[in-house]
Specification:
By secondary structure, this protein is α/β, with parallel strands linked by helices. It has helices spanning 3-9, 16-35, 51-63, 77-87, 101-111, 141-148, 170-177, 197-207, 229-243, 295-298, 346-361, 375-386; strands at residues 39-44, 70-74, 98-99, 115-121, 149-156, 182-186, 222-225, 246-250, 262-265, 268-271, 303-310, 314-317, 322-325, 364-372. α2 (16-35) packs across α3 (51-63), α5 (101-111) crosses α6 and α8 (197-207) packs antiparallel against α11.
């Protein structure tokens, strides 16, 4: 198995908190396998709290046990590649049991298949509405998965919701589960980053449009604001050369220049990440150091260092000393797609954009390098760094 994936998803030294959650979940799963009542177990936590680590321990346990009919689904093409890669390392774990949700639902409904346990990573990416373009014609993928299994184990982070067609909230989750048995297992300790709680809080306050403050200097986590994207790129290239797995990422909204839809700022100009059907996921490809990563290639993955270019859809209000969000400058319009069954407020659309930035700035285990396309925001961040 690829060492990068093993280190992220299959760690040997679980924390006491993780071991306790796994033990409780085993008890819950065993209880409802016997009851056959379509129960739901929810692993909930913010980015970096070890949700996928807990899930993969359960996947390894149940999906290599021939007594159980199981499946693992994830609605994310890059994570799907990663899990297919990991499946090779486990005797008894059939790669064909790892599916995209639409494919599994359509196949199971057509062939009348039923499961003991279905595991769902990044369940906040499940469709909560019909999406015929993606060949999903049901009304809610979680509902369909619940009907197919005795127990569904799902990983949720409501702060990683960033598209209307994949909209989830606590209320919608509870409504979808309805009268079925349900238990939530919370993870709240930050495992991905070596950042301190105060530093993680700074990131959350930034994206929540709270007044800006200097970045706390109370851990080995490396943080630096750059005056230019060109300088930021040189830094991340040096880190990639030194320790590997270091990439530049950005939020959308960059204008086309001479027909090019690149990320262009001062001396910096690189293309966006390229979709590639090959099995190797984006961050693991050596060529991705010459591209700009997005939420679609990096959600769910760890980097060693991340270089973040905050795009044009973020500005600065000097009156409130807050970063501002400008959804109309966010160029990926899929997040604003209208739904017939619910209406979204301007604040919710801002939350979608903010969630993208929050996820991306937390990709780096050991450091975050930052710059901003908006001049006023960049200058304010630089001024705070000088204090």
């Amino acid at each position: 198995m690829n060492k990068i994936l093993k280190d992220q998803f299959l760690i040997d030294n679980l924390s006491d908190d993780q071991q306790h959650v796994i033990a409780d979940m085993n008890t819950y799963i065993a209880q409802h396998l016997a009851a056959k009542d379509h129960a739901v177990a929810v692993i909930q936590g913010a980015a970096g709290t070890g949700k996928s680590v807990v899930l993969m321990q359960l996947v390894k346990q149940y999906m290599t046990d021939k007594r159980f009919k199981t499946a693992l689904v994830v609605n994310h093409p890059e994570l799907y590649k990663a899990y297919q890669d990991m499946a090779k390392a486990f005797p008894g774990l059939n790669p064909k049991a790892i599916r995209r949700p639409t494919a599994l639902i359509n196949d199971a409904q057509k062939n009348h298949r039923q499961y003991d346990v279905i595991f769902v990573d990044e369940a906040h990416l499940l469709y909560s509405k019909s999406e015929p373009y993606a060949h999903y014609r049901g009304n809610n993928q979680l509902t369909d998965l619940m009907n197919l299994a005795k127990v569904v184990v799902v990983v949720y982070d409501f702060n990683q919701v960033f598209q209307s067609k994949m909209y989830w909230s606590q209320d919608l989750l509870r409504k979808t589960i309805g009268q079925h048995p349900y238990r939530q297992f919370d993870l709240d300790f930050q495992y991905r980053m070596v950042a301190s709680p105060a530093q993680v809080d700074w990131m959350d306050r930034l994206t929540a449009q709270q007044p800006l403050t200097p970045f706390p200097n109370d851990s080995p986590f490396e943080f630096e604001v750059f005056a230019t994207a060109g300088e930021l790129y040189e830094k991340i290239k040096a880190q990639n050369q030194a320790v590997g797995l270091s990439r530049v990422v950005a939020t959308s909204g960059f204008p086309r220049i001479d027909g090019r839809h690149n990320v262009e700022m001062d001396t910096f100009s690189l293309p966006w990440d390229e979709w590639d059907p090959q099995r190797t996921h984006w961050a693991k490809r050596e060529s991705s150091i010459t591209q700009v990563g997005t939420i679609y290639t990096l959600q769910g993955f760890d980097l060693n260092y991340v270089a973040m270019i905050i795009g044009p859809s973020f500005g600065y209000d000097p009156k409130t000393d807050q970063m501002t969000i400008i959804p109309e400058k966010y160029s990926h319009k899929e997040i604003f797609k209208k739904r017939q069954d619910m209406q979204f407020t301007p604040e919710q659309y801002q939350d979608f954009v903010a969630n993208v930035l929050n996820v991306l700035i937390k990709r780096g285990k050991y450091g975050l390098y930052l710059t901003a396309y908006d001049d006023a925001l960049r200058q304010r961040l630089l001024a705070l760094q000088a204090k």
